[in-house]
Amino acid sequence: MIVEGRGVKKENKKNFFYLIPLFLFLILIYFFYESLQRDSNNLIQQNSSVFTGKAFPKIEYQDEEVDGTIYSGFGNIDFQKNEISLVNIWASWCTPCRAEHEYLMELSDLSIPIYGINYRDKYENANSFLKELGNPYSGIGFDLDGVSAVTLGIFGVPETIIVGRDGNIVKKYLGPITRIQAEEIKSMWMGI
Fold first, then answer.
1. Which residues are bridge partners to 162 per DSSP?
2. 64-190: CATH topology
3. In contact, 170 and 102? CB cutoff 8 Å
4. How confident is the model at residue 6 (pLDDT cuts 50, 70, 90)?
């Protein structure tokens, strides 16, 4: 017969008290995670909807030659040629830009006009990026100093803005284009 002594009960209580801080820590982590998720989703929805319906700021980019490759510039007048146009802000140093690039190529293959603004990048790096992954852009502007991004209210790269024929912003995507967003853009293009 085993007799429990006072030491065993004290040991169990002691172990229990060590678990309380761990349990409280896990609860705290959960609440931080939930609040971050809720706040970031609201922030994205609020910031992207602020621009909807507003005129796309006036921009004009000239043609640029980089290592023998000529990149056509673009301006607001180009948006009048199609029901919708995409303006994609990207950089060669941006990992999410690389991830979204396959979707931009797919949209470009459907003849959806995509205009790129290369943000705070070096000409040579942008050129190498496009040579490696392909060029989905109908026109490119090089925003070397970031002034255009400020004018456009850009939070970071990548961002994509859908502009209607009337020059107004239809929608703004913060972050990389995903399969879901690419399908949504295709539906807009096809008028579905």
1. 86, 171
2. Glutaredoxin (3.40.30)
3. no
4. low
What sections of the chain are H helices per DSSP? Answer: 6-50, 95-109, 123-133, 147-152, 179-190
- Domains in the chain: boundaries: 1-50, 64-190
Round to the nearest angstrom and report the end-to-end CA distance of the chain: 79
Q: How far apart are CA 123 and CA 144, in angstroms?
A: 9
Tell me phi and psi for residue 88, to 5 degrees: -110, 125
DSSP-derived 3-state class of residue 164: strand
Only one residue has tokens 């006072």, namely: 6
Is the overall model pTM greater than 0.85, yes or no? no
Element (H or E) spanning 142, and its range? strand 139-143
- pLDDT, one tens digit per residue, over 70-126 is 999 999 999 999 999 999 999 999 999 999 999 999 999 999 999 999 999 999 999
Tokens for 22? 């761990």
* Cα of 16 vs its chain's centroid, Å: 46
Burial class from Cβ neighbours inside 10 Å (0-12, 13-18, 19+) for residue 84 reads middle
Burial status of residue 162 (CB atoms within 10 A of its CB: 0-12, 13-18, 19 or more):
buried
